[in-house]
Amino acid sequence: MPRRRYVVLTGLMLCWLLAGVNAGVVHADAKAAVQGTGGEVTVRAGGSAPSSAASLAPALTGRNAAQRLDEAAEALYGYVLEGDVVKARQASEKVSQIFVSSSFEGLTSVEGINALSDVIIDLKATLAAAQIHPEQWEAAAAKLRLAADSLNHPRQPMWMQYYKLIREDLNDMEQKAAANDLKGWQNTLERLQSRYDNIRPAVIISRPPETVSAFDSWLSYAAGIPASSQPVSRTRLLEIVSYGQDAARVMFGKERDEPALTLPLAEQGYGGWGLLAGGFIIAALAYAAFRKYRGENEDWKPV
Fold first, then answer.
1. In this structure, are residues 138 and 228 in contact, taking their beta carbons and an 8 Å threshold?
2. Interatomic CA distance for residues 246 and 154, integer angstroms
3. Cα(80)–Cα(76) distance, integer angstroms
4. Disulfide check for 60: which of 14, 65, 90, 152 has CB 3.0–4.6 Å away?
5. Is the pTM of this model over 0.70?
6. CA distance 115 to 167
7. Does 162 have pLDDT greater than 90?
8. Neighbours of 174 (CB within 10 A)
9. Radius of gyration of the chain, Cα coordinates, nearest whole angstrom
10. Is the pLDDT of residue 132 over 50?
11. 168 shares a domain with 118
12. How far is C-alpha 38 from the geometric centre of its chain's CA atoms?
């Protein structure tokens, strides 16, 4: 009986030692695996082991994310212009994936992120339509192209090139207001509104919210003038255009004294008589100076 107890205790001790050794081996393997992957641990549903450390893709941040989004938007715009429906839709999915897996903190405001998100949503809805409308596709792709470029190139975004078009529309509105042509004034305003809609998401991304709100408010007020129950005078129309010019200058970062939104002055030609008169004046001044110099020398006498 004592011998039997001795055998049982010996067996239990052996099992305990074997269990301890196996636990140490498992712990060492797990530690080595963690150190080999840079301390990252992947947890999957269902308790399955991670196949590779590459299963966790790090989120894109900063300029890298903006550059990749800009490149994808440029490629998508090219496919749309070529009429390649399949590649355009594939590129839109890539744009969506980049946006979801990226962080643009420090590159734009919350309003800018929302504007970029809205552009991507509108683009995907346009591309997913059963009937293809090339003009709508191009407009949606252009908005995304300008928005992504504004995020990647905040100092020199492409939407700044629209300043010339906006300036021309404002000049045209000024001429229509001077002629008291309210119908022509309204048509020009609608054209300006259409152009501004193309760049508005890009403007929101790279400009302060108050700057965008100022131009939005002016457009909204100007659009309601033709429907006003009271007749609008020529002077009032010119004042409204002036407010729009100021708002555009601020939005595009132009100086107020820069002659961008004013009509150019005609060159003045003096002709032959103007040159002759100028020469006569110069000769008279030179002769008077010579007489004065000569008189001073003659009055001076040495002692």
1. no
2. 22
3. 6
4. 65
5. no
6. 24
7. yes
8. 22
9. 38
10. yes
11. no
12. 37
